[in-house]
Specification:
A: 377 residues; mainly alpha; B: mainly alpha
Chain lengths: 377, 326
Amino acid sequence: MSTHPEPRGQVPQSELEAKAERTAKQSRGFWVSSWINFRRRKLAMAALVYVVLMALVAIFSPAIVGTKPVVCRYKGSLYFPAMGYFKTSWENAIFRTGDRFANRYEENLKQNDPESWAIWPLVRQDPLERVRDDWFADQSGNPTQEGRPSLQNLLGTDSSGIDVFAQLVHGTRIALLVGFVSMGLASLIGITVGACSGYFGGWIDSIFSRVIEVVLCIPTLILIIALLAIVTQPTIWHVVLVIGLTGWTGIARLTRAEFMKLKQIEYVAAARSMGAGPIRIMFVHILRNSLAPILVPITFGIATAILTESALSFLGIGAPPPTPTWGRVLSEGNNNIQSMWWLVAFPGLAIFATVLAYNLIGEGIQESTDPRTRDGR
Amino acid sequence: MFTYIVRRLLIGVLTLMVVTCIIYGLIRNMPGTPLTLLQQETRMDFQMSPDTIRRLEAMYHLDKTWYEGYAYWLGDLMQGDLGRSISSRRRVTTIVAERLPRTLLLTGSSLLLTYVLCIPLGLWATASAGTVQERVLITFLYMLFALPAYVAAVYLKLIVAVRLELLPLYGTTGDNFRELDFAAQMWDIIRHSLLPVFCFTYGSLAYYTRFVKSNMMEVVQQDYIRTAKAKGVGPMKLIAVHAFRNTLIPLVTMIGLTLPVLLGGSVILESIFEWNGIGRLFIDSLGKRDYPMIMALTLIFSVMTLAGQLLADILYAVVDPRITYK
């Protein structure tokens, strides 16, 4: 006998080791195996990388293109005026109302405080205004009309001299916002409606089905335009809200079908017999198991939402004019199609690539989570 | 089956009433009325005296609340009267009848092209599954499917109309249309409609081809196909006769779902090509707050959506004997 006490009574060491080995070889969970499967799909992975890249571009857009310094030291304190691109009031008040810089940072910084320094964005162009001659000492102003792509304006300028590259980079933020926030709202509504009508059935199902039918019957455009017309000054947030409020029917229908299928499976009966309430069963037990198929229309929905926003901007009924969106640049390209090809080519490419990426991801999720297709090859 | 259809129709009428009521309420509560918008026009003949305004307001029930106005609209509809357009003072039905052929020219030929092309393409893709050509075709179709129609429309305008100057940039007909003889007129219409028809078609063609192919791939694995193969049926006959007939079921039902697009056209494509169809009429009427016009178009669209769904369900039962409705 060894001097060490046996860990667990009379259980021999070898059996314990065998047990440890058994637990170590625990099979992979659903999401892990789905992810491993997803990673094998080159196109879907490329699309995912693209989307992540776009998200980074959106987050760092003021540091990529802008005329406001990312960081500057002025009159003894540090400021981050580039934050103003996210929200006007985030641009430090001293630059807006205090010393009235009016976007001419370089000259004003030097004049008012010779000690000042600033870190500038990579490309010094503005998505909202034409860069004037006196904004930067070593950079001339943008052409007033028909600025072809050049070293100074990478993707050219639009008819009022605003840099297209700047508009597209800052438009990424709008696209991301529209895609995620409006689809987040749509999935919240869609999943709730679909879950209730699938789980409870009966008259709740009848009512919700009628509601879905009514929303489907109303032309989306009329609904969006009418809802946007109610607010006097629509902002991009209103557009996001309206797209979310109108785009939930597909998610609701799929959730309903999934819930109707899953509520008959034994584990639901088991959960109910253990005293779980309907809310708990719906959102803890059933939703977890139907999340994969529901994720697919949500991903496609992000593409549709971005498409809808661009289309609205294109028709001139989306976010108000100074907001830089891809659709608005494309629409201006359509109006000046005879002379300014760069206003068509680049925003069109941005919309296409983004929609394609979300579609590829959606299909990747569909194929890598569906046991019928993923183990086949 | 009969009682099923009757029940669906009754529910459909109820849905239509809810839809039109919501839309009427929404558009009546949009800022501005057709009369105030007309007043903003600078042209002299639109300037109206307060008396005329009051008379017109009474005529179009603008002086009443929106739900009273809706009741009047519904009452007129029951008598088969869709009313007159406020901005042009012509009958709504006349305007729609005038615009509809133009939209049908685009959507009808696009639907025809889609169905004529997607079946051979899908069958070919199934027959040559796994080859390089098939992969290229399917990937290309996937890219096409993700390419938004309005982006494609503007690109095509740029390349075909502006750079190569092959086709006209926009419009339904050329400027000298009236002076041309019949053959030249036809040619003019075809030239103008080529780009819009293409933009209408390619997306659905890509979708349907993939649809046919994926359905075929499923059917091809069935036992009865193996049996047919074992009996010595040739590869062409196997795909065209044995396998394809079973993929017709989902394909036929899809026809029903295309009905609203067929009559509604596309707002954005018609705007880009300045094609005076239903879609453009719709967005113009919205801008002018032309309530009777918007209501009529909404009604057409909703009826088509509901009829399309019903048709799809009925066709489903017709082509698939396993399905019956009670």
